[in-house]
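This section describes the prediction task in plain terms. A model, or a person checking by hand, is given the sequence of a single protein chain and must write out its three-dimensional structure as a string of tokens. No templates, partner chains or ligands are provided. The sample shown here is typical of the held-out split.
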Amino acid sequence: MKLLKIAIAGSLILGFSSTTLLADANKGQKLFVKKYKNSCGFGGDDFAAKHSQDEWEAIMEEGKFKEELLKICPKVKEAEVKDKWIQHLYDFSYKFANDSGNVPSC
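The expected answer:
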């Protein structure tokens, strides 16, 4: 019984920590600067400020984040936007949206 409690506690801890590791606004910022800043012609602060947090959230929930990135940055090719980066880019955009009060360093 004690071993079962330890196993359950361990799996909960791993579950919570893995959720926070899945996406990262700082990683999204680095990705934007490295991969898209030149093609977009502006920094990540301008990109994130294109929408409010609610707008970014709605775009993400509709599964249209990649489409929105390509619309805002038409010189970026679809193949340059990896699906595994979307959550990081979204977290960055949400964290630094025009109504967030946060200012990125890019």
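For orientation: The helical segments are 2-22, 25-40, 44-48, 53-61, 65-72, 83-95.
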